Amino acid sequence: MPEVRLGSSRGTWILLTTVLGSSMAMLDSTVVNVALPRIGRDLDASLGALQWTVNAYMVTLAGLILLGGSLGDRYGRRRIFVLGVVWFAAASLLCGIAPNSVLLIAARALQGVGGALLTPGSLALIQASFHPDDRSRAVGLWSGFGGIGAAVGPFLGGWLVSGPGWRWVFLLNVPLALLCVPVALRHVPESADENAHGRFDVLGAVLGALSLALLTYALIEAQGGTAAVVVSAVLGLAAAAAFVYVERHRPDPMLPPDVFASRQFTAVNLVTLCVYAAFGGFFFLTALQLQVAVGWSPLVAGTALLPTTILMLLFSSASGALSDRTGPRLPLTVGPLLCAVAMLLMLRVGPGASYLTDVLPALLVMGAGMVTLVAPLTATVLASVDTARAGVASGINNAAARAAGLVAVAALPLLAGMGADAYRSASAFDASFNRAMPICAGVLVLGSVLAFFLVTGRPTAGCQHPERHTHCSLTAPPLEGERAGP
């Protein structure tokens, strides 16, 4: 049984290590969007290259995050976490010195591999290290500090881009890693799952990531109408079919198909695909709209996005408690509708927009919608499967959300008619943005309808409840895991 107590010096070091590690990945997901216009201008990149700057990271992260958790259980959670931090920092360094968009995109893909190793490890280290009596409080503190980091992210990203330059958005991870790794090696105990067995589903992970990459390429390059686009789409669909076949026939699949025998689990993942596709498209385009069309600096644009994160930081815990009393259907129906209203309110945001009367109302409604749905979504995922499979279910839901976001970032500019140089023209980008927001709103309404008709009942008695009560990530629902120890 783990014996580290929360009030001990070792407990403090463990919390510091896991907060630093998870903050690297969380900050990266919130600050890069703010940097995109400057990256495009400095590297003379097309809109497609900016899409890939976001999606290259998401492809490898979404495709490998389930495998990353399994590696930690088998070979040691601290070992894989430290490997992930070092890998992430090295890839961040490559991003920071990339001389062109091609090398930046390649480095972003490598960053996603590091993120897939360290992201599951942060929570797993806390669950495996702390005494059972302190574990819940430790997870709460880790989640709260991570939320503060997420809230600071857009402001920090805007300041870095406006001041030292966009490269420091990535280079900042290097000193964080230099602090995190020695502390982890000295103060964090090693742990592993003695019951972990079987072969790793490397083939499944590769096929999943490959299908996402090929389909993303087809969507981003579709306006060119070349033979490569058609070939990429066909191969992407073939890789997806092969992924399903492999997962159905492997003895230890990364994504066990029988978990979808739960109607509730399948329903909430369909809702997840809708809402996080809309969120991915919204935050990608809004960071550009505030700078390209409205004309704000990166610092002002990053700071403008803070209300959504702050609302989640303050009220996500209360939302989870409320959903325990009402059941999941109501918040999962109302939350996406509120977010859809926010998308439509964003149609007021264009050249000459006022923050107080145009931008802030939309972001406040957006934050209220996310507060309403994110915590109940996580609770419903965990409640829809056996307690022993809670970690797998949470990982699948997290990966599904990230995959939905990257597909949205690839497809939305195509659907909105954005040309390769749209972000260089305020009027052209504003017109495309005004076509994109109703599409996002429509996807959210679809998610609300699915929740109303397919999500039923209250959490099952005796199911695992979320340990993370505060959650501020805007790109995916929180990861939960099986509780380590007795």
Kindly describe this structure.
The chain has 16 helices and no strands. The protein is an all-alpha fold. The protein folds into two domains: 9-185 and 252-454, Growth Hormone, Chain: A (Up-down Bundle), CATH 1.20.1250.20; 202-251. Helix 3 (77-97) packs antiparallel against helix 7 and helix 13 runs antiparallel to helix 14 (355-383). The N and C termini lie close together (7 Å). The mean pLDDT is 89.
Task: Give the low-confidence spans.
Answer: none
What is the total domain count? 2
> What is the SS-derived class?
mainly alpha
Total number of helical segments?
A: 16
pLDDT averaged residue by residue: 89
How much helix is in the residues? Answer: over 70%
First-residue to last-residue Cα separation: 7 Å
CATH class of the largest domain, named: Mainly Alpha
The main β sheet shows up as:
none
SSE run: HHHHHHHHHHHHHHHH
The total strand number stands at 0
Descriptors:
Growth Hormone, Chain: A; single chain; mainly alpha
Task: Please sum up the structure shown.
By secondary structure, the protein is mainly alpha-helical.
Q: How is the secondary structure organized here?
A:
Elements: H1 9-43, H2 47-75, H3 77-97, H4 101-129, H5 132-162, H6 167-171, H7 173-187, H8 202-220, H9 227-249, H10 263-292, H11 298-304, H12 306-326, H13 329-345, H14 355-383, H15 390-415, H16 426-454
Helix pairs in contact: 1-2, 1-4, 1-5, 1-7, 1-10, 1-11, 2-3, 2-4, 2-8, 2-15, 3-4, 3-7, 4-5, 5-11, 5-12, 8-9, 8-15, 10-14, 10-15, 10-16, 12-14, 13-14, 13-16, 14-15
Region (Disordered): 463-486
InterPro entries: EmrB-like, MFS, MFS_dom, MFS_trans_sf
Transmembrane segments: 12-36, 48-68, 80-99, 105-126, 138-162, 168-188, 200-220, 226-246, 267-290, 296-318, 330-347, 359-383, 395-416, 436-455
